[in-house]
Every structure is written in structure tokens, then in C-alpha cells.
Amino acid sequence: MSYPTYPPDAFAQTTLNRQDAAAYLDRINLPASLLDSPPSLELLSTVFLAHLEQIPKDTSPLHVPESHWSGPSTPVNLGSALADGMPLGSRAFDRIVHEHKGAFCFAINATFAGLLRFFGFTVSELGARSCRSLGNDPLTHADGWYWGTVTHEVLVAGWEGSADRYLVDAAWGPGNLALPIKLTTDPAGETIIGLNEFEAYRLVLEELPISPNRAQPLDVIPGYTLYRRIAPVGTPHTLPITPNSPGYWSPTFHFHLSSVGLSDLMMLHHFSATHDLASFTAFWLVTRLIPGGKGARRSMMYAEKAGDEARRAKVYTTGGPEAQGSDEGRDVEWVDMETGPLKEYLSRELGYKF
């Protein structure tokens, strides 16, 4: 798995060999006996969830140069490693699988796509436009439909003999869809309950929804919008979800079903990993699902705040059945934003190898 400086074949796809696929399965705590499994929805669901429970979304490479993890403990300055960026290709595979670390979408989803192709899945890598007002109701919130740039990568997987294809995203983070969801042209979309009864998601084929008070594009084509259902805390979701059901649909991202070439993904990744205006440069985030937690998630988060001299990352748990739909953090602890304490925590709690 290696990328040349500029890919000569823009739509060439990476597929893991058997040895690398075995190492990947070991990394996500799945047995090597799965290596000979044919592609199916059950297999896709199994490896997708196992991935989310073992491999974190992680922005740390943007804030800590690799050389700073060795030697004396030093303060972490956000964005100080932008020149290094997040590795791609074989370096991303090594970081994720052999070093037991995390990454963000252009490294994680591309690597996960290589694993899926080993099993015989057909996988399209797509660019997605993220919502900038997550968790809000676009019909009532002042932000309305507030979209950011196309700086997220998602995957659509299918297999020979199946008429259906499924969206999977191995690197969204908090609010992550953790089950494959089917693409459909039905105007009602596809709606599923997540890992517990307080999670629900909907995938709809539609033109990019934009608030009427914002500039409208001249030319549009339909794409898919993934929505997350937000309901009052303590309200379980039941199907079907209708306009009379409690809560509202909050958009997460929108994508077109058009494969994005490797060179284009490299460009999008370059912006996300190196530009001082990219959102990931502004915060430290390491987050993954808790294994067996039915959607519970453990996150480490830090962002600069005026007057905050403590400089500590907040570690907290969200989601799962016990949260009953609340995004409020629980089981809170704090870690100093210095390489020594962070290295110790990431090694102990997530198995990072430095």
C-alpha cells in the first residue's frame, strides 16, 4: 500500500493482501477464520462495528510531531504539526494497524476500504460535505441548513449478486452511524435504529438542502443526505418514524454517488491535514466506541479557550442505552495537554504504540 507523488491512475483502488488483512482483523479483535468469508451484509456489519470499537478517530498527528513523543514531556500546541500532516497509504496502514493508533477520515476510510475489497466487496470512495450545525433542527435553528466544505470521505459498499449497496463511514466520530444503511431511491429514504433504541438514522436521496435565505447553486444534482434523529432525552425511537414522532432529523453530511479519484482525495486530505482554516486544526480529538457498549463512546477533547490556563483535555463518555439519547458527558476525567501525560493515557487506555 503506497501512493506515488501523483497517482498515474486516478481511480486505481487499493486492496489488502491476505497477510495485511489478517493483521487488520487482529487489530480489530476479529478471528482470522473470517478471512475466507464471502461478502455479505452480516460480514460488512461485523467488520464495520469491530473497526469502530477498536480504531479511534484521532487528530493528534496535526498537533504533535512524531519526534515530540520521545524525550521529555512538552506542552502540546494545537496545529503545531501541520507540516507533517496525517499520513496516507502504507504509512496510514502502519499507523492504524501496526502502531495501534487512530487517524481521521481520509486515512481511516481509505484503509478500511482496502480491507473490504479483500473480502470481495466493491467499494466506492466518495467525498462528503459536512454539516456545520450538527445536532440542530435546520427547520427551526438560526443556522438553518449550514454546510461546510467537501472535506470528509465516506464509503459505499456492495458485492456481486446483491442489488443493494450500503453507506459505511468508519471515521465520523461522535454521532457515528455504526451499522450499514442501504442506499435507496425511495423518496422516504431508508431509516434504521442504531445500536440502541435511542439512536436512529435516515439516508435520503435529495438535492442538497439549502436554507432559502442563503445563496442557491445554479446547477444541482441529487445526492444522499445522512440524518441523525434527535428526540427529547429518555424518548426511545420506534419504526416507522413519522412527522408526528417526537424529535427532528438533524443532517450530518451530504454526498454524491460519484467515485472520487485518488489524486482528488489527496487534495482534500491535504487541506484537512495542513491548512490553518481546516476545522481539525482547531481541536484535539481522540474518540472511539466502547467495545460492547451498544453505542457508548469514550472521547478525549481539547480546544483553546480564552482565559483557560489549565490546558487539560476532557475525557468523557457519551451515548449508549444508559444515556437515553443525551449527549451529556459522564465519567469525566482530565489529562494535561503535554506529551508525557497524553502518551501515558493513550498507551494505557487505547493501546497506542509509540
Automatic annotation (TrEMBL):
Alphabetized InterPro entries for the sequence: Arylamine_N-AcTrfase, Arylamine_NAT_domain_sf, Papain-like_cys_pep_sf
Molecular function GO labels = acetyltransferase activity
Organism domain of life: Eukaryota
An example of a Pfam family matching this protein is Acetyltransf_2
Q: Where are the transmembrane segments?
A: none
> Belongs to which family?
Belongs to the arylamine N-acetyltransferase family.
Please identify the protein, giving its name as recorded: Arylamine N-acetyltransferase 1
Origin species: Roridomyces roridus
